[in-house]
Amino acid sequence: PFSFSTSAMAKSKFEYVRQFETQDPCLPNTWIVIRLDGRNFHRFSTDHGFTKPNDERALHLMTRAAETVMNDFRDIVISYGQSDEFSFVLKKSTMLYSRRASKLMTHIVSQFSSSYVFHWAQHFPDQPLQYPPGFDGRVILYPSNKNLRDYLSWRQADCHINNLYNTCFWALVQQGGMTNTQAEERIRHTFSADKNEILFSEFGINYNNEPEMYKKGTVLVWKKVEETVTRTCRTAEDPVERPREVTKLRKKVVPLHTDIIGDVFWEEHPDILEEECF
Amino acid sequence: PFSFSTSAMAKSKFEYVRQFETQDPCLPNTWIVIRLDGRNFHRFSTDHGFTKPNDERALHLMTRAAETVMNDFRDIVISYGQSDEFSFVLKKSTMLYSRRASKLMTHIVSQFSSSYVFHWAQHFPDQPLQYPPGFDGRVILYPSNKNLRDYLSWRQADCHINNLYNTCFWALVQQGGMTNTQAEERIRHTFSADKNEILFSEFGINYNNEPEMYKKGTVLVWKKVEETVTRTCRTAEDPVERPREVTKLRKKVVPLHTDIIGDVFWEEHPDILEEECF
Amino acid sequence: PFSFSTSAMAKSKFEYVRQFETQDPCLPNTWIVIRLDGRNFHRFSTDHGFTKPNDERALHLMTRAAETVMNDFRDIVISYGQSDEFSFVLKKSTMLYSRRASKLMTHIVSQFSSSYVFHWAQHFPDQPLQYPPGFDGRVILYPSNKNLRDYLSWRQADCHINNLYNTCFWALVQQGGMTNTQAEERIRHTFSADKNEILFSEFGINYNNEPEMYKKGTVLVWKKVEETVTRTCRTAEDPVERPREVTKLRKKVVPLHTDIIGDVFWEEHPDILEEECF
Amino acid sequence: PFSFSTSAMAKSKFEYVRQFETQDPCLPNTWIVIRLDGRNFHRFSTDHGFTKPNDERALHLMTRAAETVMNDFRDIVISYGQSDEFSFVLKKSTMLYSRRASKLMTHIVSQFSSSYVFHWAQHFPDQPLQYPPGFDGRVILYPSNKNLRDYLSWRQADCHINNLYNTCFWALVQQGGMTNTQAEERIRHTFSADKNEILFSEFGINYNNEPEMYKKGTVLVWKKVEETVTRTCRTAEDPVERPREVTKLRKKVVPLHTDIIGDVFWEEHPDILEEECF
Predict the structure, then answer these.
(1) How many distinct structural domains can be found in chain C?
(2) Are D107 and C136 inside 8 Å of each other by CB?
(3) DSSP line for B126-167
(4) Would the CB atoms of A147 and D278 count as touching at under 8 Å?
(5) Inter-chain CB proximity A19 and C27 less than 8 Å
(6) Residue C100 maps to a domain
(7) Which of C72, C90, C171, C180 lies at a 20 to 30 A Cα distance from C24?
(8) What is the distance in angstroms between the Cα of C159 and the nearest Cα belonging to chain D?
(9) Residue A14 predicted with pLDDT over 80
(10) Chain C residues near residue B141 by CB distance under 8 angstroms
(11) Which residues of chain A does D147 touch, with a Cβ-Cβ cutoff of 8 Å?
(12) Which residue of B28, B29, B144 is in closest CB contact with C29?
């Protein structure tokens, strides 16, 4: 009853379509940055009752998803997140997926997205997820360390500017009783100093004392930690195999809420940039 | 207590880094295919007890995630999935995200990934998800209708070849008591006809009678369906506004398990290819 | 006296820099158009005393250079030139230089440029070339026959519009005694019909009677021609080897000054578009 | 007699084809190298009686064409040529043609090609050019100074290896009376030291004393030179306008035949690499 002998032939007849696939390798010896952004997160945050201007649960969930990505892609040397965006920096010399841009960005965006949903319930125990969220991603290449630092500074300066704006805006709305439109009008043409002044004089808020996570965003770096594990082994003194406590070094992702615009951070973490492959 | 006046300036000082971003528009008047593949799904399927050679729950979950993608991106005219892969075809004239390849592929992969996790529990009620799965994606352009059909034929021929192999392999292992290695040895150099013969004479399986979803994969197309909804309105006969049952046409994603290599399918769905923008 | 043994080693130490080269293949099954344009040709034409609005010698030289290109790249199925630009169309299925865009455009631009200088003296016997001219090039891909025809129509419509403008402008200057600025003012806001009217009523010029090369530009196509050559051979009738006149078919580049916007040209030259590889 | 009023409309109807053109900007802050190579120069050199292993006239003509290119593109900071190839290095910060790869490579290849023909007669007074030569070009990006130096070192090491081989090969043929095949056999598996020994012991040639241009190729750099010109002007001492000799600085292309693999050259020309835009 069988007439399948032509199938492998059929497949090979169609296989020419593979020639239409393209390679898109990233230039060697260049920092690869992959930034992802939430899609329609304004609506998503409303639908899920995010507190304004910052929802701690949502930010921690973003960080949790980013940690999953870093643990999967050990060539990421630093990540930076704020609001509904996260940037991942692959080391200059990475050969992950032969540096193919499509592979890198889709894998990272996919892993981030599925992790975000996977860990949702843990961070939002009282708020069921209504529908699966989406993120988009892009690849950007930076040839020099200075370019890379300027990129990260750009994102952190953006975090600060938006957070100051949002803190002021929501104080006017939530505590000042303004409508959204009134609040917007009020601060549209103000400078940073003006917004600080409004917060301080009208609402008694010293912006400097706001949580660092809100003002600085989240930096993820690797830290070597000592870990005590139980292994069955011998020692120099005791030739019998038995379970023993052993100390070993392990790389672990650590979140920081610190300034990365100035030099201090980079002097304290010299290993991030120092790699010199060529 | 405020010293933030330099921040906006700082941001603009760093903003030059945006010049390093590139555009990657897809050639106009060309079919855009986005294919995603499960990452390490061999291990993932083992970790989650997928039945072999096909797990109906897993295939339905893939289809469910793909439907979510199609409902989000209405310019997808047809999708095709098998095993842990899915291909989405955007119409030639789509201007979605200005046809930017990065945006298109990351959005689709992201939406698929988060939907896969979101709908997991519904399809695997007795099997908790252990960890978030990953998918990768790629963009491929096809200039002609023939190229596009050959691409889809290639995937469906691949589905058939793999499924016949797997059906035979797992019969030898599960019913024939062979080890994986023995089963592999047995069928390594056989043709399709040989595998059909093994299935029939040794296990009484007529491959033709295997489920169409396993043999053909899953095709998703749009179907116009009539929907009865209640609307408060007037009619020609009755000028008073009152709730009435109204019939309207709606596009709905429909899964098919049918041959797309031959001409019949395309003759029955002329609208998929007929679009002629230029 | 020799210390060179390290050189081959040195070379291999540096050879990693080849990894920075990229491939840039053109999408298969797509028309490849390469258009080149004269660089600073306004100045070049003044420096070399080109007659205005059209210099027959210069146009013939452009055509001569384009013919050289076509004879070198037999996969060019049609070329179109006007003013200081020329477009070359490579057949959809060409595998020349593995369809690498850089190779294709640089070779064609290089061959055109060196030919332009090489043949200069023949077309400008009384006007020495003052300095080497430059051309730039670009690659454009067109997926469908309609797109390709529209591209060529665009260039020919451009030729017509510019030529009508220039013919009118230079009549006003050369015969009407206007300054450049006055002539420009006069025709800036006119339609085609107005320019025709000016030419006819003020200068007795019927634009329709202007040379076709000026109005339509130059189309280069292949024509099979019979050629009589002398070969030393036998025939069925005469078994002795001796020199004989033999007729053979040869492809030859032929310049036409004809409309390529309408259907007539394409119906008369069905072979240009009919190739159907996929 | 006029029916052209539809032409401008026609043009705009076709103008959509411009959307198919792509941008191809080079990554900012990255060295842009454009290398061109002679096409079929083996045959070209035979057809034009080049002396072997090196033809001084041909090398000088290559240098002359490269100088023309540099004088046209002042953002080229260094060039390197050998045999039938030349590499041009554009400074990291160049914004020439908005860093568009196609524009840069086609302009440079075009200018080089037309200059090669333009200056031919001057360098080959007794050898007419038989046909226009062709060159191809490519663009390569290098992020770091080390990568760039390694690229140039790679080309110079290649020059040395080829020249030693060719010098030895042609000595065996021209002075040793071997056929090409015999000479090839003789040196195929030898090291540099062996070839030096053959040259010295069999032909009395000390390779070290061969011309530097043959051994090292040609490096083109900018040199600031004082130039005395006559200008009509006043001075502080003499308020009357009269013609005076004035000294001014001018950048001039200078050819060198020197080692660029070691550090000495780069220490003596610190300005080539020192530019630090970001």
Answers:
(1) 1
(2) yes
(3) TS---S---EEEEEEEE-SHHHHHHHHHHHHHHHHHHHHHHH
(4) yes
(5) no
(6) yes
(7) C72
(8) 10
(9) yes
(10) 27
(11) 29, 278
(12) B144
CB count, 10 Å around CB of B53?
20
- C-alpha D159/C-alpha D211 separation (Å) is 13
Nearest to A102 among B114, B138, B164 (CB): B138
Q: Do B28 and D22 touch (CB under 8 A)?
A: no
Asked, for residue A246, whether it belongs to a domain, the answer is no
pLDDT at B230 > cutoff 90:
no
Residue B226 lies in a domain: no
Distance CA B193, CA A3 (A): 7
Q: Is residue B228 a part of any domain in this protein?
A: no
Q: How far apart are CA D150 and CA B192, in angstroms?
A: 54
Q: Give me the residue from C20, C29, C278 closest to A27, CB to CB.
A: C20
Residue D6 has pLDDT above 60, yes or no: no
CATH classification of the domain holding C213: 3.30.70.3000
- What is d(CA A249, CA A254) in angstroms, rounded to the nearest whole number? 15
In angstroms, rounded to a whole number, what is the distance separating the alpha carbons of residues C130 and C117?
11
pLDDT at C262: 96
Domain ranges, residue B86: 31-218
Smallest Cα distance from D147 to chain A, Å: 7
| Angle, helix D180-187 to helix D192-203, in steps of 10 degrees | 130
pLDDT over threshold 70, residue C276? no
Listed in sequence order, the DSSP H helices in B175-224 are 180-187, 192-203, 212-216
Residue among B161, B207, B208 minimizing CB distance to A8: B161
- Report the gap between the CA of C20 and the closest CA in chain A (Å): 6
Report helix, strand or coil for C241. Answer: coil
| C2: confidence class by pLDDT, cuts 50, 70, 90 | very low
Q: How far apart are CA B274 and CA C18, in angstroms?
A: 45
Note the pLDDT tens digit of each residue in C241-250: 888 888 888 9
